[in-house]
Design brief:
This protein has about 600 residues and is mostly helical. The protein has 23 helices and five strands.
Length: about 600
Amino acid sequence: MSKREIWELDSIFPGGSASTELQSFLQAIEADLATAVSLPLPPPLSAASHSEWTAAIQRLYDISSRQQEAGAFVGCLASQSVKDTAALQLMGRLDPSRATLGVLWTKLGAHMAAQADDEWQALLATAALAPVQFHLNEQRDEARQQMAPEMEALAGELATNGYHAWGRFYTIFSGNKEVDFEGQKLSLGQLQSKFMDDPDRATRERAFNQFEEAWGELAQTAALALNYQAGFRLTLYKYRGWESFLQEPLQNNRLTAETLDTMWNVIDQHAHKLTDYFAAKAKLFGTDQLSWFDVPAPVAGDGVARQFTYEEAAEFVVENIAKMNPEIADFCQLAVDKRWVEAENRVGKRAGAFCTSLPLSQQPRIFMTYNGSFNGMLTLAHELGHGYHGWVMNDLPIGARRYTMSIAETASTLNELVVKDAAIRAAVSNGEKLSILGTKLNDAASFMMNIRARFEFEKSFFTARAQRQLSADELSEMMLAAQKLTYKDSLARYEPLFWASKLHFYSTYSPFYNFPYTFGYLFSNGVYAHATAEGADFVGRYRALLRDTGSLTTEQLAHKHLGVDLTKPEFWETAVGRVLADVDEFVALAG
């Protein structure tokens, strides 16, 4: 295994979880937080108090930057080895600091909300704060929708050992589970890759059966975690006076319910087209109907089912993205050369893939388990897209860098689209083209059916959880109903335990960690249409769009840079039509 497949972390804090530099860094954060807690709030706003207000705000931004740096680094340590108990302890150590910082922002936000509007606008007009006025206005508006500051502070502190602890608990008990699969010791993440990516259907089915069996053993524990996390959130919403459990995820994504409903409605009206793809794919697989483990599986073609080394995958990504946008390609090459990517396929890593930003180091780190498949190459392209998004924002103040999950998927999915289309252009036979089209349509099914099933499940779960706790069997029934609804009842087998096996349901920092993916997928198709139509002229506009993601609502961003109204069906109709255009060609090639 090449050393280039293992990320480099020592330039951030040498020594991993035993780093003395990291210890000193954490101690400084804790000391500065203690000082910040002891300081009084700024006096009432006036021209004379601008300097005190600016100092208070910049103090919290500074601590936020350092805490994000430490949190990202420790998260990398815990992900690369789930048995690194010191890293898990560091995660626990960071939680109180994160809670304290949250309390400070909550108190300052409430103080902001109490100031006169004209004085507030005058403060934001100053040179020091004008670049972050969007974020500060957001903080002020959110404060007006919350409980009293002392109640919010208490809730934040209690969440450390309650709400967020359940999320950590899930990561530990699921990450430590290993199974013996046909003579191999595999993590659940590796076993999942086996049933999703293996070209042999019998192998996929055996892996899927063992995966479901393993999660069946963990289901009761997972149900406890999910019920208690949801119970905490619903209680908090009740005391805030929030009527909808979607208020927080919509706020977090700077998105309106009208836009979200419009997107789902358009998808519901057209997703049945994918059942034509399923029928053709089932015929190729020699079965009457696809099962859950068939939907993401590759279609065997001439050469696409082959394995790609990590070096080959990186080269293909860089070379083809360069044809559309040289800036992105240069970043991708830099990330690979600097070893900002953890790609090694080994036991002991957590499942999944992510990209994290280190605001002080001004570098990303990308985590994945590269398995040599075409899908693995797409994951690499996807996460490098996330990295590029953060990279172009490095020179912005920390308060202008926070973009939402829904928009975060734009750059990553765009990279994927470029790589897929490049692979289709390079296809030397109908078999190879069929295989790549299958990969594209697998994504369509994932974003328009799988993720919608997650959304429908969570809606049903939170509605029921408001009344009582649910058993593991009830959760499985609820998940099965959601999958049958969104897959148009077209599969022979589903994954009832998906509610347990999917990490995203347990992400306490990102409630409803589902619809942003679909949004980003379709939104990126719209952006890609502009990129392909405008060529080099769009490179600068694309960079500007990404840089604005921390300073505009989602609807404002789309209107400013694409000239579209996301609350109307036209944009979504075009995006969905673009996605489904591949179905007929796949069916024709499949015979």
